[in-house]
Every structure is written in C-alpha cells, then in structure tokens.
Amino acid sequence: MALDPRHVPDWQIALDAEQNMKTVETLAAELGLEKGEVLPYGHHIAKVDASHVCARLAERPNGKYIDVTAITPTPLGEGKSTTTIGLVQGLAKRGKNSTAAIRQPSAGPVMGMKGSAAGGGLAQCIPLVPYSLNFTGDMHAVTQANNMAMTALTARMQHERNYDDEKLVTMSGQPRLNIDPTQVRMTWAIDFCAQALRNVIIGIEGDGRRNDGFMMRSGFVITAASEVMTILALATDLTDLRRRLGNIVVALDRHGKPVTCEDLQVAGAMTAWLTEAIKPNLIQTLEGQPVFVHAGPFANISLGQSSIIADKVALKLSDYHVTESGFGSEIGYEKFWNVKCVRSGLAPDAVVIVATIRALKRHGGAPAPVPGRPMPEAYTRENVDMVEAGCQNLLRHIGIVRKSGVPAVVCLNSFVTDTPNEIKAVRRFCESAGARFAVSEHWAKGGDGALELADAVLDATREKSFFTPLFTPQTPFDERIRKIASEVYGADGVEISPTARRKLADLQAREDAKDLSICMVKTQYSLSDNAQLTGAPTGWQLVVRDVLFHGGAGLVIPVAGDMSLMPGTGSRPSYRNIDVNTNTGTVTGLF
Predict the structure, then answer these.
(1) Is 299 an annotated catalytic residue?
(2) Higher local confidence (pLDDT), 329 or 214
C-alpha cells in the first residue's frame, strides 16, 4: 500500500516505491526499445540511443503531443512536474500507452527553495536521489563543455597578449584573433545559485608573473541557463549539436567581428564532452510509466524546455506523450510555441494549464507566500471573492494557449484546503472561456486521482488543433517583441533602450536573421516585467534594457526588467534539510 503523502515526506515515499520498481531493462522492453538502443546506468536508469530509435521507427506515426504549462506561479511553484507525472499515470490507468518528458533538475533549486522537480506525493519519478543529484552526468558535461570554451578563450587571449600586435600569427601558427577583452560575450558556468559569482575579476597575476591568465571582468551563469544547455535542448542530432557549438559567439574582436568556438578550434572538444549527454535519459514514475529526462529548467532566463530529441523519440514509442515547459504560459509555453515547435516541426494536440487555488488567491490579493514560512491565513480559509479576482490571471493564460490554436485543459492541482465553492468558481470561469476543466488529486492519490484530468486531455486531443506560430521568420525582431508583449503579456507597448535597439539592428542585419528566434528573459512572477504586479495587469509597457545573442542556439534574447542569468540562494535553502545516513548511505531530506 502506498504511503500517505499528507504524513510522509516525498523522499520516504520514493524510497518505499523504489523497493519494487521495474528494472530499466523491463521498462525499456515494455516501451518497445530494442536491447542495443538501451544503455543502462545501473539497474533503474538508462540512456537511450534516440537516433537509432527514430530511424527504426521513422514510418510509425507520432503519438498525441501534450504540453504542460501553468498560470503565473507563486514562489512555491504550482506543480507542473507533479501534474506531468500524475497525468501520465492517469492516462495509464485509462489503458493508454503514455510517456513523459521532463527537464533534469538543477542543483541550484534542489539545494535552494524549489526542490528536485521530480514531482511530489504519489506523482513522482524515481529513483529520486540519483535523478536529483548526479544522475547520468549531463549537467556536469554541459558545465564542462561551457567552461572548455571559456578556457580556450582566456588562454588564447593570454598567449596573444605575449606577442607583438604587429605579428599576424601566434607562435603556434594560428591566425591572431585580436579578441577585445571588453567585448567578451560568454561566461563561465556552475550548477548552483551562486550570486557571489555573477560578476568577478579573473586572471589576477601573482608575484609579477604573466602566465596566470588574462586579467579581465567575467562572470558565471547557472548551467541550466547556459547557451550550451539551450543547444542541447534544441539540437536534433550529434551533427547539429557540433555545428551549433561551433557557432557560439564567445567574444568580438577589436574590429567588432564575432569570434566563435570554431575560431578558437574548441568546438570539437566541447562536442566530445557531450557525446553521451545528447542521449535522453530514461527513468519511471512511481507507478512504472516511462519518463524521459533531458535538458534543463529556468524558462524565465533561458529556454526551459525538455529536449526536442526526447520528445521525438517518445512520440514514436507512445500513443500519448506529455512534455513540460517552465513557469507560466507567457514564458514557458510561449517559447515552446514559437521556438521549440518551430525548430522541431512538431505541433501539440492539447495544452494543460496547471492552476492552484493558492496561486489564484495570490493574484486575487493575498500576500505572497514565502518558502519555509507558515502560509498566511488567506490561503487556509475559504475566500471565493479572492479566487474569482485571481481568475483574471487564469483567463489570460487560457487566452494565450487559445491564441496558438490549441485546445486548452485547465488542471486544478488539488490541495486539502481547497473548498467546493472555490473550485466551483474556477470551473465557471474556465468553461466561460471555452477551456476544459478538471480537478486532479494526483499528489494525494497518484494515477487514480488524475482520472478526471486524463479524461479531459483525451477529449481535448480528439479536437482538431490549429496550431500556428505567433509570427513568421520574416517578421522583424522588434515587431516580434511587440507582438509577444501585447498579444501574450498584455502590455500596452514596448520601450527598448538605445543599447538594446542598436543590438537588435545589428542582429537584424545578419544574413541568417530569418533563422533566429526570440527568447525573452522576464520575471516568472508576473505577466508583466515587474514581479510585484499580480493578476492580469493593464496599462503598462514592457521595458527591454538589453539584448543578448546566442549564435549557436540561434536565439536573440531580449532582457526585460532586472533579471540575472545567475539566480541567488535565499536565507532558507533546502540543503539545510539534506543529510546522509552514514550507516546505510541513504540520502534523506530531498523533496
């Protein structure tokens, strides 16, 4: 009998379930994978040779494609991963061959506030500890590939400095790159929320030596927000991965010309770090359904999608495949819609929008909940008026999904404090907006609690989808930003700083401009660029203060508001709760 999540922490539920989980060979065989396509990492984890599978099953039609997104979340999160796992379990209860694709957790949130992103309660994926920590080494490989490029860059800068500027070549016979130290575009990576590393000085010489590196300003991004991680999510195969890594712009030379990883002759070595990481990982839900894990989180500051490769292989192997996009629909789903699907050529059959009474109350005027502190009374007492006020935020998200031409299903992720009157109010708003509505108790009951959700999704996938991107490849970048701001976020207009406008003009002049995508950086806590504006704010303008460029990933990245690609660790981090039983080696305290 499953443990009760109301009284038992997630890590204990996972440990209990892991005693009876399927071996990865059994899981793979049930999924239809052949022996040579499965690369076991122990008894319960494997990598999958996706290129071989997709070639073998090229003539097989794809299954139904379902994306899970959410309303604007609270800092506690509203349960997208939990819902993704619960939905797959619910579909299996209905006799459907179903799979999930989720993003690999970053050590920053695992050791910070949000936990492991494995789901929760009776809707988790297992084995929990390996998945949450070292797993199969993908995060390490992405970090190493990123830092390999930075090592090559800084070494080249140091060695070129040691020779007369008039010389055309270095001592090694390579052409001089004449890198401008004030125009370095790439940073180092580390998979922690390490705000102390956002801005650093590197290459400080010791004892008067000139071989300690090139002294300059630099910094770190969290690994999941690095361009290398984005490339892993968007690459279609190893050849595409190698090409994209070579196109990463690490810096500009003294004439303003881009210097790439290919120029540094480091792209091959970077690819070598990623030859195993490009293969998606395979684990299972608590109830034994296949879960593919590939690429990373942080849709607010990066792409935040499970990989194209994972989705493509899963769609060949299952009848219903559920993938996941980060944060609210205006961030995660917008990037799924206008970046990932445009690149993959895939189109969703339905979209699940996860909502909670908790988040609706926040958008209706309740004080913000703080991780690690008791919930304010507004969240534990019935307040239908507050829920109805918050539904304005939900209606905006339903509108975003419907604008893309895809049927929307609102999943109310059930909490024990929800009341029938509050639920009834949400149902009324959803149905008036033309969205299907389901209350799901997957956290408390697993697949049995997700049957209403599974039925709503099955019904939605029978409806014809008219999926259409928001703009064409020929749409100018500034117009794309304005369409996202007005038609997705609900802004009255866009204010672009002179610096950002100049960068957009330079990027628009590129020959490959039509092949580039817009990938916004924006707060996840508001539909606007101001985290304090809850609900569905009106009468505001999106302020784009800067534009970044990821040449390998092919992304133009407008930065709105005060955002950093390196999150910070708060005052109540999760690592305080994590420990190891030194007699058994069991890790405790993960959630």
Answers:
(1) yes
(2) 329
Dig out the tokens for 172 from the structure: 């090694």
Cα separation of 450 and 462, whole Å? 19
The catalytically annotated residue of 93, 96, 114, 503 is 114
pTM, whole model, 2 decimals? Answer: 0.95
From the candidates 64, 103, 244, 445, give the one annotated as an active-site residue: 103
> How far from 493 is each of 404, 488, 500, 541, CA to CA, in Å?
21, 12, 16, 5
**C-alpha to C-alpha distance for 138 and 220, rounded to whole angstroms:** 18
- Quick: pLDDT tens for 86-133: 999 999 999 999 999 999 988 888 888 767 788 999 999 999 999 999
State the Cα torsion 216-271-32-296 to the nearest 10°: 10
Residue-level pLDDT at 149: 98
Write the single-letter amino acid at 102. Answer: I
Burial classification of residue 457, based on how many CB atoms lie within 10 Å of its CB (0-12 exposed, 13-18 middle, 19 or more buried): buried
Decide if pLDDT at 161 tops 90.
Answer: no
Sort strands 281-285 and 38-40 into parallel, antiparallel or unpaired: unpaired
Q: How far is Cα 60 from Cα 314, in angstroms, rounded to an integer? A: 12
429 is catalytic: no
Whole-angstrom CA distances from 155 to 212, 249, 265, 287 are 10, 16, 12, 50
Residue 336: strand pairing partners: none
Smallest CA-to-CA distance from 83 within 468, 403, 409 is with 409
DSSP 175: B
503 is catalytic: no
Burial class from Cβ neighbours inside 10 Å (0-12, 13-18, 19+) for residue 202 reads middle
State yes or no: pLDDT of 170 exceeds 60.
no
Q: What per-residue confidence (pLDDT) applies to 162? A: 73
The whole-angstrom separation of Cα 9 and Cα 1 is 16
334 has a pLDDT exceeding 50: yes
Assess whether 114 carries a catalytic annotation.
Answer: yes
229 with 223: CB under 8 angstroms? yes
Active-site choice (188, 443, 477, 540): 443
Determine which one of 69, 72, 74, 82 is catalytic. Answer: 82
Which residues, at least 6 apart from 553, have a Cβ–Cβ distance to it below 8 Å? 227, 230, 231, 234, 244, 303, 519
b or e along 2-28 (b: 16 or more beta carbons within 10 Å of the residue's beta carbon)?
Answer: bbebeeebbbebbbebeeebbebeebb
- CB neighbour burial string for 126-156, b if at least 16 within 10 angstroms, e if fewer: bbbbbbbbebbbbbebbbbbbbbbbbbbbeb
Q: How far is CA 364 from CA 269, 359, 391, 440, in A?
A: 52, 9, 8, 22
- Neighbouring-strand partners of residue 547: 558
The question of whether 210 is a catalytic residue gets the answer no
CB atoms within 10 A of CB 368: 13
pLDDT digits (tens, 9 = 90+) for 44-87: 999 999 999 999 999 999 999 999 999 999 988 899 999 999 99
Strand partners for 65: 321
